[in-house]
Write the structure tokens for this entry.
Amino acid sequence: MSDNVERAVVIGAGTMGAGIAEVLAKAGVSVTLADVNGQVLERGLAKIHSSLDKAVERQKLTAEQAQAAKGRVSTSSGEERYASADLVIEAVPELMDLKKQLFQKISAVNEGAILASNTSSLSVTELAASARRPERVIGLHFFNPPPIMPLLEIVRAEQTSLATLDRCLALATRIDKSPIVVRDIAGFATSRLGIILGMEAIRMLEQGVASAADIDRAMELGYKHPMGPLKLTDLVGLDVRLSIAEHLTRELGPQFTPPPLLRQLVRAGKLGQKTGEGFYRWVDGKPVAK
């Protein structure tokens, strides 16, 4: 089955949104990267261009392919592009009300588009209930950084039609991702496993079991994880992981309860790579053990 996606809008020009837009553009989709903040839009577009240039340097793309992908990405701080999109992916902060407002607004001007959420933990079924055509709503959970990570977690809401699912599976193949399909249960598959491992690693650090670097090294070398759980938490953002852990605690139980150390670091503004310090210090984009 063809995905029939020629034009897409990605809402949210942060790390995830810019990365998703790049992935789509490389696959031949015309993409509008949208954000209400003009400066964030400029940084997002610059990030896409820089990433494509690096792909040429690593011989992952030809110069011509990179230039063509750049030409497929435009930016917008308005809503004029929603009406003509075949696919809209939101990559905004993990706030249910914000996401529902977006889906209500978009489905009012475009009932035919697939509306996808990049949420890592919120209910896609609840999001779908806010749209005029809930059968066209689905979760497309990309992983950071989207141009490199091969996994695409496809979350089927209670209302998602088989046709919508099939189109998204076809799109996954087109954008060179390996999809898994999961039911819409809190945390899906990846966040439940990732958060439980991350919270336990933080508790181990609290208890003095080992240093952050050694806990991470244990998982990287002993279990072949590409990145340890504390380093990954720094990369995702301690505030983001705290929010997800609190959500999963409410939905699934106390095994996801955030450790006090995580709350203390968030209160101190030590959110990981984006602030320069979390469980590591970050220098020139690279982690340095404390």
Summary: The CA atoms of residues 87 and 112 lie 9 Å apart. Residues 7-183 form a domain with the Rossmann fold fold (CATH 3.40.50.720).
